[in-house]
Amino acid sequence: MQPAFTVRTPFANLGVKVEQGCVAGIQAVANSLDLPPLTELDKKITRQLNQYCKQQTDCFDVSLKLNGTPFQKKVWRELRRIPPGKVTTYGAIAEKLHTSPRAVGNACRRNPVLLMVPCHRVVSSSGLGGFAGKTRGKWPGIKRKLLQHEGVILD
DNA sequence: TGTTTTGGGGCTG
DNA sequence: CAGCCCCAAAACA
Fold first, then answer.
1. Separation of CA A42 and C1' C13 in angstroms?
2. Long-range contacts of A68-73 (CB under 8 A, 24+ apart)
3. Does A24 contact strand B, using a CB cutoff of 7 Å?
4. A86 and A140 inside one domain
5. Do residue A51 and residue A74 come from a single domain?
6. For helices A101-109 and A70-79, angle between their N-to-C axes, nearest 10 degrees
7. How does residue A91 score in pLDDT terms, banded at 50, 70 and 90?
8. Amino acid A60: pLDDT
9. Three-class secondary structure of residue A14 per DSSP
10. Predicted TM-score of the model (pTM)
11. The domain containing residue A119 runs over which residues?
12. Could you tell me the pLDDT band of residue A129, with boundaries at 50, 70 and 90?
């Protein structure tokens, strides 16, 4: 089955199947595509992603070595403190870091690990906000589904 | 609904 | 280094 979209991680490309308004399952694209065999770390990530889909909670205990500017790392570190089921705004993050909402969105846009750095839990003050670098198209819809999966009530 | 301000990154020279 | 453009925002009229 073709995954609805691909989650980018430092370790592997993982397909995520989205159906009926929630994230229903994860499958490693490696099974169906020409990708190298999964390493132990890949399998661990896959297990944790599966667990996220079942339990709607974060189980990501891998240490991420993210490439980014010092500012981006500060923003990403702040994002990882947002628990599942909670959302915050670009403005609130900006206030904590003494910067501007615009700059926070810029750093979110460059987040390489969706889900593990939960940028989907940051919304605009006047709506959903963008996701995966896009403000239109399917990605904002996926953001919405991830939030619904975590039990967030959206207007 | 517009328009204006905004901070950081990436690019060019 | 400076100048310029791009943005997943926000405030305001």
1. 53
2. A68/A107, A68/A110, A71/A99, A71/A103, A71/A107, A72/A107, A72/A110
3. no
4. yes
5. no
6. 90
7. very high
8. 72
9. strand
10. 0.77
11. 70-149
12. very high
